[in-house]
Write a structure and sequence with these properties.
By secondary structure, the chain is mainly alpha-helical. It is built from 6 helices and 2 strands. A two-stranded antiparallel sheet has the order 1-2. The relative contact order is 0.16.
């Protein structure tokens, strides 16, 4: 089983679409950071212009926690699609190259073969989410520093630095489970679509 899993990891990182997709993730992250660096302060001033007439804000609201929040919400739209393309590609590419038939002729248990793909897709998804979270926190805090988080969720909400970090951290953890669902679902669809059909 371990040999199958290591083989699946090799095939996953051998396909070029894996690197293109991962590069796209970090390009999106970079676009958010660069945009915030050059235009973020002006946008926040416009959004909070009325509030600043009533409240006094100490420090800058354009900080690392806000950027992590923005990256989180931006990537949660793109990440499922990117993961689905990568994960389902591990099976569809084998079917297209006709290597799947060769694998099935080997003395390998079919359920172990499919199970190894599921295991690799789950591990890969968790690793991707971990590195996205790590890069988001490290880059955002390094460039913009820390501070309180202000977000609009039906109403204006303020979270202190420690509380903001705690919430954002667990948002990535819960998001990882959602991403695993999308990866598993895409692989399952690929498995059923590529199953050999019996002709009667």
């Amino acid at each position: 089983m371990l040999a199958l899993i290591s083989t699946e990891f090799y095939k996953l990182f051998k396909q070029s679409k894996t690197y293109y997709a991962l590069a796209a993730l970090f390009i999106i992250e970079a676009v958010v950071l660069v945009s915030a660096y050059f235009q973020g302060t002006n946008i926040i001033d416009i959004l909070l212009d009325n509030l600043k007439q009533t409240f006094y804000f100490e420090g800058t609201l354009l900080n690392g926690n806000l950027l992590v929040y923005l990256i989180l919400n931006t990537l949660w739209f793109h990440l499922p699609l990117i993961l689905m393309i990568i994960v389902s590609g591990t099976l569809t590419s084998e079917y297209k190259d006709r290597t799947l038939q060769a694998v099935m002729l080997q003395p390998i248990s079919k359920w172990k073969f499919i199970a190894s793909k599921y295991i690799v897709s789950i591990i890969f998804t968790i690793i991707v989410v971990f590195f996205v979270a790590l890069s988001a926190f490290v880059l955002s805090y390094s460039i913009f520093g820390t501070g309180d988080l202000i977000v609009y969720l039906n109403a204006l909400n303020f979270f202190e630095q420690a509380d903001a970090f705690y919430r954002l951290k667990w948002a990535f953890v819960s998001g990882a489970f959602s991403m695993v669902f999308f990866s598993v679902a895409s692989l399952t669809i690929a498995v059923f679509l590529r199953r050999p059909r019996k002709h009667g």
